[in-house]
Amino acid sequence: MNQIATFTALKRVQTIAVSAVIAATACSTSPTGRAQLSFMSDRDMREMGQQAFSQIKAQTPLSRDSQAIAVVRCVSEAITSRLPADQRGAGWEILVFDDNAVNAFALPGNKIGVYEGIFRAARNQDQLAAVIGHEVAHVIAEHANERVSTTYATQMGVNVAQAAAGGSGTYSGQLMGLLGAGATVGVILPFNRKQESEADIVGLDLMARAGFDPAQSIPLWENMARIGQEKPPEFLSTHPSDETRMAGLRKKLPEAETLYREAQEKGFQPSCGF
Length: 274
What we know:
The chain is mainly α. The chain has helices at 3-24, 42-59, 66-80, 85-88, 125-140, 143-164, 193-209, 217-230, 242-265, and strands spanning 27-29, 35-37, 93-97, 104-107, 111-115.
């Protein structure tokens, strides 16, 4: 068999293997109605999130800026308190880290980290709410489970293809390295752009329902873009382009502004001193 035929055969085996894994597992649905491959258990994802969060805390000092901590806590509590009961879970652990990176991250198990450097882009509570809402959206949409499941299924296909060719490929990568948190950790990979765009849209609704002005999401990303002209923030490294992001937010904004007005009328008017 020539090289082209061999390669084609291996790709066919890989495709069949991946398809078998996908077919054998139940797909879930994201908050926007998108089908997701998600076969990791909630318990496993929580444990992986806890391990990753512990690793980050061991490597990065916690912030001592009492004002930054209070503002992040206030905004976060305003957003998470408006989640349905089944999404609030046993509570959220949201920490501020002493790092000038313009970055934030989310982990399964209701873990969110915010770096002090985010305040270079988030100039008021509503802009910070756009960041927090985006990260909360990653968690409730189970993007980490989707990423781990998809990567694991693909790797299984590669191993089957290698075995069919007489190789001995093994899956030795650590699943914790697929969780999708901040790239500053090194072992943790980012979410893909489809997930980032979805987190933008879901996050816009979350901040609006909590009483934060969704229109402030636009100047937030404008600030991010300006900072990115100097050095791309970690937060934007795998995010959609500025143009794509702005277009998506503007399209969703009228609906989010309706939610915002309704929240304000119901008395959800957070005041986080920022």
